[in-house]
Amino acid sequence: PDAWIVSPETSNTAPPVVVVHGIQRQAGEMAFLLRRRAVETRRTLVMPVFTPNHWKRYQRAACPQRSDLALFALLQALQAEGTIAPGRFDMAGFSGGAQFTHRFAWLYPDAVGRLCLAAPGWWTFPEKETAWPYGVGRGTVRRKHIGLTLQINLPRFLNREIVVCVGDRDLARDANLRAGPAIDAQQGPTRVARADRWCKAMQKAADRMGITADLSFKYLPGCGHSFARCATSGRLDRLFVTARQVRAAQHPPTTPILERNAA
After folding, report:
1. In terms of Cα–Cα distance, which of 22, 6, 177, 192 is closest to 97?
2. Beta-bridge partners for 219
3. What is the pLDDT of residue 11?
4. Complete DSSP assignment for 8-70
5. What count of other Cβ atoms lies within 10 Å of the Cβ of residue 76?
6. Which residues of the chain have pLDDT under 70?
7. What's the pLDDT score for residue 13?
8. DSSP secondary structure, 55-84, as one string
9. Do the beta carbons of residue 190 and residue 135 sit within 8 Å?
10. CA–centroid distance for 3 within its chain
């Protein structure tokens, strides 16, 4: 896929942050709203663009078009040209991007560091009795291995900082929220309820396996389902892009380079 890249002129040794858009494909807006935070932390941001004509169900990561493998190809290209350093990267996602992000990190836990998951419409739960992508049970014949992979990866997936956040006013059952008797019964009626229920399910799974999970749930005050509002009023920008491994500043912060990269 194409990508928006935010590259501060002075960078540090922290890993890049991959930020994934929702189904409105607002990667450019996200780049604009997060640019100042990139300067403050001197971290490079990579924002892939999963266009609707090629990536209709990119949120599932292991979708028929394999958006997960496309992201790996993009990152390898950026590493080869020296835009980002090789190694693990942090991830953050909003709405459909949070759907992609938690599934991608669960499939490839050794590739990803810290996670920030903001207001996804629905989740994959650690339930063996529920088929993928709603749980980690056996799904269709073509995707029957995905649930088993997630079951095996669950301990390693939980071995990281995971921040879940949602606007305290994100209560609407809009047209983009997957709804129905089955998913409502499993996950709850709203994004707020679903985020809370997923966190509790993951904490319960961690307790069952004897894992000390670094899992937190935060409300974004006064925010509904708007990335711009969450980033500017709810301080989601600080949750998405954290200051990690920052060296002492040699120069004052400078304006980041904002560009769209064709990969």
Report:
1. 22
2. 166
3. 67
4. -SS--SSPPEEEE--TT--HHHHHHHHHHHHHHHT--EEEEE--TTT-TTGGGSSSTT-HHHH
5. 13
6. 11-12, 140-143, 245-263
7. 72
8. -TTGGGSSSTT-HHHHHHHHHHHHHHTTSS
9. no
10. 15
pLDDT tens per residue across span 245-257: 533 333 333 344 4
Q: In this structure, what token pair is assigned to residue 223?
A: 């925010």
pTM of the prediction? 0.91
CB atoms near residue 126 (< 10 Å): 22
Contacts of 42 (CB under 8 A, 6+ apart): 8, 10, 11, 12, 14, 246, 253
Q: Which two three-digit tokens encode residue 177?
A: 């929220």
So what's the pLDDT on residue 12? Answer: 65
Residue 218 parent element (H or E): strand 214-220
Amino acid at 30: M
- The one-letter amino acid code at 152 reads I
Residue 119 tokens, joined:
């207001």
